[in-house]
Specification:
Elements: H1 2-23, E1 54-59, E2 65-69, H2 82-94, E3 103-105, H3 108-111, E4 125-127, H4 128-138, H5 141-152, H6 155-168, H7 192-202, H8 209-212, E5 216-219, E6 224-227, H9 232-235, E7 239-247, E8 251-260, E9 263-272, H10 275-292, E10 293-298, E11 302-309, E12 315-320, E13 323-328, E14 336-340, E15 344-346, E16 354-362, E17 365-374, H11 383-399
Parallel strand pairs: 11-15
Antiparallel strand pairs: 1-2, 1-9, 3-4, 5-6, 7-8, 8-9, 10-13, 11-12, 12-17, 14-16, 16-17
């Protein structure tokens, strides 16, 4: 029996040596992925220009532009400026820098704001929650400045952050205040594209809908009424927000959001001649988008027990990335999914490493891809770990 065990261990030793030579090359065996083709969704001509200086329609999750008209001209945005003010306040909430029940004390500067306001008094206090409601529902300039000072210490510091964040998002917008009041500004502008990009970031914070979908409400214990400046909330099916604005310089502007059948659209109108024309233009863009487009979406898929040669574990799980694309209405059902999952990988495999690809095609043409990523790391097995592992296996066989 001892001779058999000794001979067995010698055999195991040489087997390990030969295996380690094979594994020395290492590296994941991943099939070459298909080239990503052009997006097959062609722009559909709207048919006529919107009665405004600038307009844009965007699908929110993908950022795909469905319609644009003079979308890159920098124009005065009036209170649509507050989309960026909202974003910074909501990001501060998410970061734990402030809380909804924090008390905001109103400064002389905040109380001095003209235009749309809730007539805050110097020294008056309101919660962050109430201030957000005043700013988003009633477009209150005094509440916007009070929040700006509360979050970053001063209006000037907040404005600096507004410009910094805009640059991070790839926007060319330039801000001089958190309100959009433009009597005294010299270079306070946004483009329709900037507004759509910033609005898309805002609605990544779903709490904004707690305010932007309010039609009427009150503050100060019911003593002061608020009515949403965005009439689409009441009169357009699926409307969810977001911000209106108007001044003599900017004319009538809106960043509007609406959701139907799992698709969220952002419509931006700038410098429309009247409030009603602005609202009708936004509605017409929404009608166009919902009538002609849909979102195809695939949640992450798990791929279990992908074999790993030469690893401390024999297999690894792969998970595909979430995939979303805007297609012509009716085309979503025709999209095909082609999974390229490797049968074998070689250790080491890093967590998050690309190990495969899912390709999506429409009428035989690639419309997008998503990577399959390793869900965990698998280290290369060492010589002595291999020796002990095979030795344990050999002993188990002997006992049987």
């Amino acid at each position: 029996m001892k001779k058999r065990l000794t001979a067995g261990f010698i055999t195991v030793f040489f087997l390990i040596a030969s295996l380690m030579t094979v594994f020395a090359g290492g590296g994941a065996d991943v099939a070459t992925t298909a080239d990503e083709g052009d997006n097959v969704v062609a722009a559909v001509e709207y048919g006529k220009e919107v009665d405004a200086k600038s307009a844009l329609l965007m699908e929110a999750s993908s950022g795909k532009i469905l319609y644009e008209q003079n979308a890159d001209e920098q124009l005065p945005p009036a209170s649509v400026t507050k989309t960026m003010t909202m974003l910074l306040v909501l990001e501060a909430l998410d970061e734990g820098k402030i809380k909804l029940d924090d008390t905001v004390s109103v400064s002389e500067n905040a109380a001095s704001m003209g235009g749309s306001q809730v007539f805050l008094e110097p020294g008056e206090s309101m919660s962050v929650d109430e201030m957000l409601k005043c700013m988003i529902v009633a477009s209150a300039n005094d509440a916007a400045v009070a929040l700006a000072e509360f979050v970053y210490g001063s209006e000037a510091a907040f404005v600096a952050k507004m410009n910094e964040r805009a640059a991070e998002l790839g926007c060319k917008a330039h801000f001089e205040n958190p309100t959009g009041l433009d009597d005294a500004v010299t270079d306070h502008t946004m483009s329709a594209r900037d507004i759509a990009i910033i609005s898309a970031e805002v609605i990544k914070h779903p709490i904004v809908y707690n305010y932007s979908t309010i039609w009427m409400d009150t503050i100060r214990g019911g003593a002061f009424g608020l009515t949403n400046t965005n009439r689409l909330i009441r009169f357009y099916n699926g409307a969810t927000g977001l911000k209106t604005g108007s001044t003599a310089k900017a004319k009538f502007c809106i960043a509007a959001t609406a959701e139907r059948n799992g698709m969220t659209l952002i419509a931006v109108i700038m410098a429309a001649p009247t409030r009603d024309i602005r609202n009708e233009a936004a509605k017409s863009l929404f009608d166009f988008g919902f009538a002609n487009y849909a979102v195809y979406e695939q949640e992450p898929t798990e791929y279990n027990d992908i074999y790993v040669a030469g690893g401390v574990n024999n297999s690894v799980k792969g998970v595909s990335e979430k995939f979303s694309i805007v297609v012509g209405k009716g085309d979503a059902a025709k999209i095909e999914k082609i999974e390229d999952v490797p049968a074998r990988l070689s250790a080491p495999v890093a967590k998050g490493e690309k190990i495969g690809t899912v390709t999506y095609t429409l009428d035989g043409k690639t419309v997008g891809t998503s990577d399959i990523l390793a869900d965990e790391a698998v280290d290369r097995i060492g010589f002595w770990d291999m020796f002990l592992k095979l030795g344990a296996w050999f002993l188990l066989c002997e006992r049987k």
